[in-house]
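Following up on my earlier thread - several people asked me to post the actual chain instead of describing it. Fair enough. Here it is, all 611 residues.
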Amino acid sequence: MNKKNPHTGGSAAGIRWNLGDYYTSPDDPAVEKDLKKTLHLALAFEKNYKGIFDRKPEVTGAVLARIVKDYEEILALRDRPYVYAYLLFSGNTQEPAYGRMLQMMQQRSTEISKHLIFMNLEWCAIDEKKAQNLVNDKQVALWKHFLQALRRYKPHLLSEPEEKIVDELENTGSVAFIRLFDEMLGAARFTVQTKGKTREISEEEALSRLYDSDRETRKAAAKGLTEGFNKLLKPLTFIFNNLVQYHSTQDRLRKYVNPMANRNLSNEINGKAVDALLKTCDENNGLVARYYRLKARLLGLKTLYDYDRYAPISGDLPTCTWKEAREMVGASYRSFSPELGGIVDDFFSKHWIDAELRPGKRSGAFCAGGTPDVHPYIQMNYNGHLRDVSTLAHELGHGVHQSLSNKQGYLQADTPLTLAETASVFGEMLTFQRLMETQKDPRVKLALICSKIEDVFATVFRQACMTRFEQKVHQARRKEGELTPETIAGFWMEANQAMFGNSVKLTESYGCWWSYIGHFIRSPFYCYAYSFGELLVLSLYALYRKEGKDFVPKYIELLSAGGTDSPEALARKMGLDISKPSFWKQGMGLIAGMVEEAETLAAGLKPSKKK
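Reply from S.P.:
Thanks for posting it. Predicted structure:
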């Protein structure tokens, strides 16, 4: 690691993924071949199985197993070309050919899907006794949870013709607005002035400057971002309003009782448990204020503004080249488990990661699980900061999780969002502990733990804050109609101020900063799953510290299970009861312990002068 090297962000130049395990190029004949084969299989599936639950002789466990196996094969093959197109587009949102291909893959996928819609509807239509007899048949055991989970949607399904219409209209409805959002922010440039120089930079680069040790650099970055967001605010507000209304329409048609009900159902968690989680976060916002008051003292600032939140405690906080990050994260996983370390090594050596900074690339980071016959791929934007090392560890956690769960097949490899962040956040913890163990300087150790606390706050409290914001927006949209940018800004400021209390002064211009957050657009009410995942991982990590190597096989078993059981049941196998409010309070206690550790370290250092 380097003490301070401004060039470490460029160290990932040339780190691009090789998508050849999907197809050799957008023109690969195999793309069209797979699409035609999938449509042929879907037509045969519809011909063979439509109405089968009403036929004589009655469907047996063996027949149902064959139906689900065929269904799984078709879905996996259908999604192969789409995932490839999505990855191409994410790597360069400004390439028209990739945008066209993505749109075409969505249309072809819809054409295939309309021949499969009957399957879910007819399975949910049979009576409960018959369904239970079938799922309890040993020949269906592999897909038992999938089939049971499908039936939970029974009250919310439309007729087959209606489902086909909804599915087809999405390509020019919600899906189109999401793509527009991605293209607008992918193309956006932000004018930032620092040290007398003016530069046009990407959103990702501008956001990274909020972590700079120089206050004027942070302030200039915040100003540039605000001006850039404001230029796009009218169309971004229009997009957001339309997608919130789309969500409301879906809820009305499908009889969901509130805006979060659909997400809770897909997460396999009841509304009361989510309410308990959010309430626990609200009740512990004082931890956030307590920490940021400490941070203001450490920085020597009388007032901490929104652009100061991510300022490093030490100006000498190390930076990392891509090579150093690769070694550190790889070693962290290998020391925990050679098996997981081997999976991580494959991501690097086989070019499954795209990390370089380049124009047009989607901002942020993600891990795309894809289809079980192909490994996951990771995209991120590596700037050389320690938080980028944490992001790398996070996304590799997703990659490890998806690699292990692929054996469950396409229908059950994925977990609900409530467990989807388990391996990613756990990977961050492993890397953080390794970082802490290598440091001797108390100032650097304090800076590291403060950085980790801020990561935890961003994952727990900020995600709960964003969920509260979404609740206000969705409720107001249903009561008042289309919302103005000013109204949305008011909700944003209110939710954030509740989290920070009087510890951070939010500038008026911060009101538009909701507008770049993709989860509000792509996945409404996704955010609380991060809070859930972080608190779960804190408990898991405490268990690991207690049990040592005995914990490892149980943890690998948890990840390998994928979506074969409910989050509550899988957590119970680890000895954790997530149904109790006390579980969330236990996680908060661990966070409080981290804040206390920072306070203790800080007490031994000479305070900075007030600025």
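The beta strands are 190-194, 197-201, 353-354, 366-368, 377-379. That should answer part of your original question.
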